């Protein structure tokens, strides 16, 4: 160090005027080293320690604001701002500043022809003695509004730690009021040293964010695993209810919906809503994508990836920043947002082999302009775990629904065999044909359960009363096959022309489960099981009544959808999916299930 100082002192044109001897120059160098440089080094070390001691658990904006303040004070600057570069959309996003009032229009600055962009591309510091004379500094208003006239821009780099992660580049811009300022190499070196320490803190922040992300993923997986271990199996609404609390750090969620996309890419349908009964869309089984611009953009990529005033279209998500002003919002979404205090809407596509088959919609009460890569990764992970739960739930449904058609096949096959063996074939021909028709029909139901476990996408208009009558007849025979001869089946009036729009197969599953539950509820001593159907306003209604009373606490659970049985869960989910309503009530010695489904018009 002494030799370096001696060299610079000897070369100094100012000192050469005093004709100092070599010994005097050596003594001066020693004095500067001992009393000047050592103090400066101590100050630099102190400032470095202060910067690296910034808590990495703070939010990004808070970290950068704290760093900007410390750097400004150490370098005796008048203001500072820190920005990071998003390599995916080629923009600089301001994260934090000190004594620097940033306008809304400079919140996101294009890299092209900007001082920050020049620094990021070169990886080197850039000095601007006079902002008004700098062609690459667009916001000249800063001189008039804040009195800042010169700056030095220092690069920062936050490394990526995963294979697919980009390094994040950014700048620290340090401002001075002094015009035509001459920056010396020492203050530039100090600024670059502190910038590297800021990068260190941000790298720690990124590591902690990754750790937090992995912990949140583990919690989600653990909750599903615990739920799977229960005997009653897994139910989608239970998974939603368990997992939503794990997302509160990302979004203040008002509600959430899972949608599936039809094979022809023209319609979507709600698979699940949280909380249940939110009715974020008008009552219908299917929603036409063309009538919902935000669906169209997400599913069919009808708009370019960009950050607009009221929307942010990103390869990993679609964010509607203001649903009341966005051009992608339809009247339905605007009404829902206004009624439920929703300030932003986030859509997350769930892709399989680059095709969107499902997507999540989060209706948020907080105003969001963007999301971090880790936030989107967590929400996407959440969605994919939900998809797994959906597949498991549907498999459980299939296994549960094998029972009724299997019993019917066995029973009617026995009857047909017995008739062939004991009756005149010509006289019993009609009866045998009826039995075999039922066997064939139920065999086809089992085949559909195995080959087509997903009932969505095959909806059509059906006559409620006709299908109710048909399933009542088959279930009556199935009960007789089980030797429950003390149950009297009564068919009351079935009003014709009650047309509804849904999956016939799904509706038959609901009826079979309702009949199965009603049969089990009839006491051992026997009783009645009856049906009727009628129109009630704009809904088609049917009732299934059985002898035997359900405890009041169980009735309340059924009304709230808090059911444990697989059959009741199938019933409740299907009725909810077609925007119907389920009611249950009792009298002295009977229980009635009333189902109301919107009429098809």
Describe this structure in words.
- Helix content is 45%, strand content 23%.
- With 601 residues, the chain is of the alpha+beta class.
- The strands form 4 sheets. The chain has an 8-stranded antiparallel β-sheet, with helices on both faces. Strands 3-2-1-6-5-4 form a 6-stranded antiparallel β-sheet.
Q: β content, as a range?
A: 15-25%
Strands across the major sheet, in which order?
9-8-7-14-13-12-11-10
Low-confidence stretches: none
Mean pLDDT: 81
Structural class: alpha+beta
- Basic shape: elongated
- Count of distinct strands: 21
N/C terminus separation: 91 Å
Brief characterization of the structure:
With 601 residues, the protein is an alpha+beta fold.
Which structural traits does this protein have?
single chain, 601 residues, alpha+beta, 8-stranded antiparallel beta sheet, 6-stranded antiparallel beta sheet, elongated
What's the arrangement of secondary structure elements?
Layout: H1 2-10, H2 22-52, H3 60-74, E1 79-86, E2 91-98, E3 108-110, H4 115-122, E4 126-128, H5 141-146, E5 150-158, E6 168-176, H6 185-228, H7 236-243, E7 253-261, E8 267-274, E9 287-288, H8 293-300, E10 306-307, E11 311-314, E12 317-320, H9 331-340, E13 344-352, E14 355-364, H10 373-401, H11 403-422, H12 425-451, E15 460-463, H13 464-481, E16 487-494, E17 499-502, H14 504-521, E18 527-536, E19 539-547, H15 552-559, H16 566-577, E20 581-586, E21 590-598
Parallel strand pairs: 16-18
Antiparallel strand pairs: 1-2, 1-6, 2-3, 4-5, 5-6, 7-8, 7-14, 8-9, 10-11, 11-12, 12-13, 13-14, 15-17, 18-19, 19-21, 20-21
Helix pairs in contact: 1-2, 2-3, 2-6, 3-6, 6-10, 7-10, 11-12, 11-13, 13-14, 14-16
